[in-house]
Write a structure and sequence with these properties.
The chain is an alpha+beta fold. It has 15 helices and 12 strands.
Amino acid sequence: MITRPRQERWVPRPLPLPLLLFASLSACATYNEQVEAPVLAFEGGNFEAAEVLFLERDPSGSPFLRSAEAGTAAFVGGDFTGALEHLHGAEDAVRDVEERAVLGGEGLTEDLLSLVINESQRAYSGEGYERVMLHAMLGMCYLARGAPDDVLVEARRVDQLLTAEEKLYDTQYQAGGLGHLLSAVAYELVGKPGEAFIDYKRMQEKGVGADLTTSALRRLGRRLGRLDELDLPGEGEVPPPDWPSVVLLGGLGMGPVKREIRIDVPIDGGVFAWSVPDFDEGSSPASAMDVVLPGRGMRVRASEVENVAAVANRNLEDRIAWLAVRSAVRGLLKRQAAEQLRRNSDTEWLALAMDVFTIASERADLRAWRTLPQRWVAARIFLPPGESVALEVATDAGAAVELGSFILERGETMFVLARALDSGIAAHVIGGERLPATPPEITQASNPSQPAPEVPAPKS
């Protein structure tokens, strides 16, 4: 009988503790520090560069953020096909989370309870409000592509995800206005005014849309014979049913940024570290956006339909207790590890290294969708069909961009997708017949070498 020598199973030896500690500390740069370059490019109006930088650097370790940031850059730059590709990539990255959210909040609760060395080492699947915004952005891309049925699919997803978040935290967000507006406009495009009426009523119930919502309810309520269902101020004018319209969807500024709140408490023989994230209010170069018709002396102010910064803060407040508990538990576990090192080791520097690791590793997760706007606003203007109209988009801070002159056919809806940043206003027109620019008046002789003819002085 031939016996073979016994082969022992090879087990990899763990890294020495100092190497493990320093390896864990190597990725401590915050997300805000890592995305400074692409964010500055975006704010400066260089959207193509921002898109490339977000894709190439991928500092987040999150396919969701990588694609969402690049998709927003493409969207604001007017590349709606590229934006759709990136945003669908973000959707693919969080599809499992979304399905669990829609089916029930239990799966999301499990995510809130999980523990890691620090929050930044967790796979980032977006905050609840960010996943809602993802589908609103997809809806606007489909609107730009002339696909209202796809807009309705995304709007329904917005409503499902928002409902799941509200159920999970037993609260009501003043959110979803952008999704309802996209749904209402799409229903009007496909000839279902009754469904659009319902969406506008939901905007009214949430207190978003202001004048835009009121005028839409009055217009559709009269058409459908349902004005008696509404409590609207004043009478108001209703445009003829065949008049075309211009719909502005605009984003103001930059969305909220996560900052760190941390406490390092010296205790007997060591340190206890605790940290959680907090949002600021974002920033905007202006507080309002207008549609301007300079030739007609009209200036229509857009109404707020979604306050991204306010919803982000509220959403984080609902999660902060879970995050605080997780941070506290991690702090206790690290503290216990340091104490054990002190008891079992003759070298004090190992316990000291553990204290340094505790302080440096307990970092709040500052990852967030930075290129979202602070607020979304919208306006709608009805115009006589077949008449030339010059359009501009302007802010109350003095920035303005001329869109050109257009003629709209009966029943046509033209869209203007705009974003106000420190660098100016980026705006893109979808629909309408653009008229050629009027050549400048000739103020001198056609032959520059010949002097211009003298103009006789007017008689007194």
